[in-house]
Backbone:
């Protein structure tokens, strides 16, 4: 594992973009927090609380690898991804990309840097302007970043992009609605690729696609990574998909990373109680497995990120919770070494070792109802009623 | 305990008489100026008390239209429904809207993917459950209340007394789906139709809801139609699985033989394209090429032919018939296993 700092970005000659070594840290996130204020009142915008969407995340993504981020709805995956790309203002903490701090970057510098950081979205239809042809969708970013002067000069590159993502050249003159979901996602990927980025953040890139088509897009992402040495942050809730495409995996729960390790190690030796429950809950398309496996059924729901539990955020649902520490001391993400793990396995649980050894056994959990402050509940009710889309 | 193992030995419901018999169900949408579109094409299946029958397939293959047709919830205009849907020997397709309304909620319950849009946003949860009981069981509001409370408790809603007075938006997604299940089951329907009931939920919540459904179906001997695109859900929950493609049944079988030995190339393709939680993660996935946009018309070919790795010349020229052998039904000229189907004759397509 190499953690050497990279050359400063200013050394990079324009046009001839040198890339650093595979394996060095490309993205370094330190203690990142994104808190959204909950406002109430028509005349006076009174802040009645905060949604702690991302609440203290440390994360490193190495050049050329795929980092998979999993967790349940609302745990802060998208917000974290967006904050890394500086599409979301962070409340605290730093994001360093290729040795350069993105956090204090603004204006023109940020705009230039954007070229290196691209995003692929879940809903290919919603993220592509329906009135633009594929050609104009693809040329847009290239022009903005001065990669090509006009559409004509862009033609060879456009053809290459389309063939890279497996679409016929005739697709250039068509519009997004003329394609199937899987093809639209290919267009979204081609658009991200068009500016020759280093990092692609893919937020649920296959979850809107049919099962039979998901595999096409997963294979495509893998091929492109190989071809162009891309680094990926893939956000997904499907654990099997994440296992398949990731080198390393981070599991999020209520704004924090609770476990992180090499993908194979994480799936073979889940150490955090939440990861164990999550893995055991995934339905497997094999009746024999389904008939015999043990499920850890969690009781209750994910607590609201506006009112996260004290101490370990998982303690309200944790079948292994202990009398001491769990309720009042927030566990740090720390290296845990246990026979069979790789030595880079991090867990945020006070009792990871004792749980792994069987010294601590699971027990029943009383389902807790959430008691949020009344104002918060009402404010959240308003949000639902107004149907503000949070994605 | 917090850990559960589903029982391996389930009661075999196959001996019983079917509760619901769907025969040749065909739904055609016709919009002015457009060609008629056959969304469901000659679908037949049975559901017995205590049995869970799965309908699987990708989006647009006709799953939801099938459930809406069974429940009489398709719009009055713009479509024709033919065939029959018999519940206890009574053809639901011949009933009036009012008769169907009485049946829904009493004999047939339903659960949809999006609980928020199926619950009334301005009526407290408790009232919504008691209303079902008042309407279909003739209970007074007063006598319905404890029953509603008991139902909420039964579906695992903590602190039911408080929840009775709350509105749908005050509940989490999982709690709303539970409330909807409570409403659907309040009158102990003999038939329950669940259309993607867990698709919008997180896996840990999905596991809770599936365990709940499994338990209730067992306990009340309910016949369940489970509609989903998730093969994992099917593998754990359904006794019998119907695989649909482009509005038609392409394969049917009990879940064990179907998953272990898929005969239809589409079933096989689906199963081998999903990434797994075990085995070699680095192995390349095997996608089904193309998409449903490539489908051929069923009337003169196999719709799946452009995407099928087993396709032969005949597949583009004739329509394979759905043929039963034992508990298995297959529609294919060149299957992965099992007997090839003959071409569909005129009689097949009345
Ligand atoms: N602009 C915003 N203002 C207020 N709250 C927000 C905003 N964006 C997100 N949130 C809240 O922050 C939390 C985390 O949201 P986020 O979208 O990151 O979750 P996620 O893990 O991506 O979930 P999903 O799997 O559903 O996409 C949620 O509670 C969400 O409602
Ligand atoms: N009201 C309608 N009018 C016209 N076409 C419809 C209507 N409802 C559904 N369809 C079409 O019927 C097909 C099957 O739809 P549906 O049953 O909803 O699919 P799914 O299997 O995803 O549930 C789709 O092609 C859909 O576009
Ligand atoms: S710290 Fe305690 S509550 Fe948190 S996961 Fe570990 S055992 Fe469970
Ligand atoms: S009939 Fe032909 S095209 Fe259709 S599934 Fe069978 S082999 Fe494939
Ligand atoms: Mg998200
Ligand atoms: Mg549907």
Residues:
């Amino acid at each position: 594992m190499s953690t050497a700092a990279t050359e400063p970005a200013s050394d990079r000659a324009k046009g001839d973009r040198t890339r650093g070594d595979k394996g060095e840290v490309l993205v370094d996130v330190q203690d990142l927090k994104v808190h959204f204020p909950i406002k109430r009142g028509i005349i006076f915008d009174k802040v009645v609380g905060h949604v702690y969407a991302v609440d203290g995340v440390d994360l490193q993504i190495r050049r050329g690898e795929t980092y998979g981020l999993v967790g349940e709805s609302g745990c802060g995956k998208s917000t974290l991804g967006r904050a890394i790309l500086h599409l979301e203002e962070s409340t605290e903490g730093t994001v360093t990309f290729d040795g350069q701090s993105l956090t204090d970057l603004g204006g023109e510098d940020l705009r230039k840097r954007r070229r290196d950081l691209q995003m692929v979205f879940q809903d290919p239809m919603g993220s592509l302007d329906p009135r633009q042809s594929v050609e104009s969708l693809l040329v847009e970013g290239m022009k903005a970043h001065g990669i090509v002067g006009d559409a004509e000069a862009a033609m060879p590159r456009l053809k290459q992009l389309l063939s890279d993502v497996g679409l016929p050249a005739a697709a250039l003159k068509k519009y997004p609605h003329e394609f199937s979901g899987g093809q639209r996602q290919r267009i979204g990927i081609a658009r991200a690729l068009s500016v020759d980025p280093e990092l692609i953040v893919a937020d649920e890139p296959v979850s809107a696609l049919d099962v039979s088509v998901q595999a096409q897009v997963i294979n495509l992402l893998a091929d492109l990574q190989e071809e162009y040495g891309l680094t990926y942050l893939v956000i997904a809730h499907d654990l099997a998909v994440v296992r398949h495409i990731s080198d390393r995996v981070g599991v999020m729960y209520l704004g924090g990373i609770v476990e992180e390790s090499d993908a194979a190690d994480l799936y073979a030796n889940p150490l955090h109680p939440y990861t164990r429950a999550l893995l055991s809950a995934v339905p497997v398309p094999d009746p024999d497995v389904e008939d015999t496996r043990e499920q850890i059924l969690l009781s209750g729901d994910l607590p609201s990120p506006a009112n996260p539990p004290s101490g370990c955020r998982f303690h309200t649902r944790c079948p292994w919770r202990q009398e001491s520490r769990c309720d009042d001391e927030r566990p740090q993400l720390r290296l845990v070494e246990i026979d069979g793990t790789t030595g880079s396995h991090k867990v945020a649980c006070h009792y990871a070792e004792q749980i792994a050894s069987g010294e601590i056994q699971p027990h029943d959990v009383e389902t807790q109802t959430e008691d949020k402050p009344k104002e918060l509940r009402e404010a959240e009710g308003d949000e639902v009623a107004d149907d503000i889309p949070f994605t | 305990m917090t850990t559960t193992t589903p029982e391996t030995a389930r009661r075999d419901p196959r001996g019983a008489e079917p509760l619901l018999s769907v025969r040749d169900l065909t739904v055609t949408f016709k919009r002015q100026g457009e060609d008629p579109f056959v969304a469901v094409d000659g679908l037949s299946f049975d559901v017995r008390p205590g049995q869970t029958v799965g309908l699987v397939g990708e989006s647009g293959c006709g799953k939801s239209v099938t459930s809406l047709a069974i429940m009489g919830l398709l719009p009055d205009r713009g479509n024709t429904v033919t065939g029959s849907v018999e519940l206890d020997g009574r053809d639901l397709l011949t009933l009036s809207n009012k008769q169907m309304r009485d049946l829904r909620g009493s004999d047939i319950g339903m659960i949809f993917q999006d609980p928020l849009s199926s619950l009334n946003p301005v009526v407290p949860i408790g009232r919504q459950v008691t209303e079902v009981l008042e309407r279909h069981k003739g209970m007074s509001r007063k006598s319905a209340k404890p029953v509603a409370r008991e139902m909420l408790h039964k579906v695992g809603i903590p602190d039911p007394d408080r929840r009775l007075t709350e509105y749908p938006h005050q509940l989490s997604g999982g709690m709303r789906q539970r409330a909807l299940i409570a409403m659907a089951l309040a009158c102990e329907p003999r038939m329950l139709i669940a259309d993607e009931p867990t698709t919008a939920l997180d896996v840990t919540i999905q596991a809770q809801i599936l365990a709940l459904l499994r338990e209730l179906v067992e306990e009340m001997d309910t016949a369940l139609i489970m509609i989903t695109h998730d093969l994992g859900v099917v593998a754990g929950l359904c006794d019998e699985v119907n695989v649909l493609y482009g509005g038609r049944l392409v394969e049917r079988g009990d879940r064990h033989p179907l998953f272990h030995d898929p005969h239809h190339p589409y079933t096989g393709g689906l199963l081998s394209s999903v990434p797994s939680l075990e085995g070699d993660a680095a192995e390349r996935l095997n996608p089904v090429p193309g998409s449903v946009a490539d489908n051929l018309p069923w009337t003169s070919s196999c719709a799946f032919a452009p995407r099928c790795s087993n396709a032969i010349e005949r597949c583009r020229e004739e329509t394979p018939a759905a043929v039963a052998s034992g508990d298995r039904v297959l529609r294919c000229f060149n299957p992965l296993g099992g007997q090839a189907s003959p071409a569909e004759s005129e009689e097949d397509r009345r």
Notes: The pocket of iron/sulfur cluster (ligand 4) is lined by residues B 265, 302, 304-305, 308, 310-311, 315, 320, 332-334 (CB under 6 Å). Confidence is low (pLDDT under 50) at residues 1-16, 382-391 of chain A.
